[in-house]
Each structure stands twice: as structure tokens, then as C-alpha cells.
Amino acid sequence: MLEKQKDYFATRYSLIPDSQLDFESIKGISKETKFMNWLTSFEAEKKKELYYRGTNYTLYCKQLSDDCFLMSFAKELQETIGEKTDEGIHDTLINNYKKCTILIQTQNQWMLIEKSSDISNGIESQKNLIANVIFKLLESKNLCFELGIMTEKNNFWTYVSTNKDCLTDIDITLSSPNFLGGIKSVSEFLHKTKDIYNNTSVDIHLKNKEGHLIIDPENDFLQDVVRYTSSGCGKWKIKTTTDKTGCSSSDNPYIIQLPENVAQLKDSDQKHISSALSHMKRIDPECKKE
Description:
The chain has eight helices and twelve strands. It has 290 residues and is α+β, with helices and mostly antiparallel strands. Strand 2 (48-52) and strand 3 form a beta hairpin.
């Protein structure tokens, strides 16, 4: 019998060090090593807990290989159950944890996140919640943590081409220099702003209320910006005079399917995980060569 499958959306995490040096940074420990140490610390600590904005969160994490981890992200919810009494059924509040599974590959800084409406409504909201919780848990390491949804860069150019005569707004967020150092024009731009302002991201907003924005697909810097954000190191959103909702990088993420109970880590689950990561290597144009 075929196992029920769950959708996972692809994200890339960014690690942004604070300009204020901590003891580990002074010793030459890189941001990547800090994050890896944080992941491997689950083996001894078993779990990490955080009370964030009125809700309890608990994270578990198992190491599967040198660069692969399986995380369980749990959110405490209060639910009402009916209890039978001599006088009738009484409503009683109970605490219940809902969870999603996250497959982490550190070489390419991927996080494949199980879509879960129990965690949050919509993948953008779910992604932001997970990023904020992990960011809070990493604060002691002087690391900023961000997640960006991975999508096909042609989604941007196709929408621009289709709506070239009515473009009103283009919003672009670039995470400060991190994984994609090979995109030199963007990396150099971000390094300059980071050195001056110690910012974690840069927002670019282009607007023409009449819908006459000129977006040149031959512009090298803009090509690099779209490539950078579509690879999960930022985000983009486009609006037109005829489409106020617009199109964004989170509308069409890369989707991977894994078995519903993949966290049981049966032999078959391990094969599915390996297959999912192999698929990511084929579709991610920024994938590091082994």
C-alpha cells in the first residue's frame, strides 16, 4: 500500500553574524560552524524550548549524516474537549502540540519544511514563524537567522514580460551576504551596506503609480538580484494596475513530497530523504558541487 505523502516547500537559510564580536568569533569560529554546533547540541540536550509571543514552542533534532538533520518543530495549542460528568458534558481546555517536520541540509543551507496549517496559515507565515523561533534560540551566538522561499527565477521574468505595460510596484528584499557569494554584484553591494550599517537585509522598492515601470531583462544587476532572491536569499513581489494582489516568490515554491511518517526514519524513509535531496540538487541552480 502506498504511503500518504505530505508536501514540503523548499527554503534556504541565511546566517548573518552581528558586527559585535563574541568569544567564539574572536576564536575564529565561523557562522556555519556555530550553526552546526547548535544543531549537534540537540543530541545532549534532547530538545530546545522557547516561549515566544504567548506561545510555547519545542524543537527536536536528529542528525542523519554529516550534513543532514531531521527537525521536529512543535507549537503548543489549547483545544477544547468535552468531558462526560453526572451533570452532562463539560468543556475542558487541554494543551496539545502540533508539529511539522523540517529536513535540513547544511552544505547548501536547505530547509525543506512540511506544509502545516496547524502551525500557521500559509507557507510565508509558517516560514516566518519558524525563522523567528530559531532566530531567538540562536541569539546567544550573535547570529541572525533568516529563511527565504526557493522558487524558479523565470517566474519573475515571465510575470514581468506578461505585464510589462502595467507594472506599478516591485519590492525586493535581499538578505545580507551569506551563502551565495558567487553572485558577485549582489554580494559586493550587500557587503558594502553591511560594513557601513550592520544591517541584516536590504529592501528595494520601485514604484510608478501609472504602471510605467521599466524593467530591463538585460540588466545584469537586476538579473543577479532576481537570481539571488529566487534562490532563497531574500524575496520579491510584483504588482500591476490590473492585479493588485500581484505575484511573489512565495507563490510558486519548489515542492518536494515525503511520506507522512518520514520522521519514523524507517529504511524506506531514509531512501525517500536521500531521493528528495538528490532532487533538490538537480533543481537548485546554486547547489554546491560535491
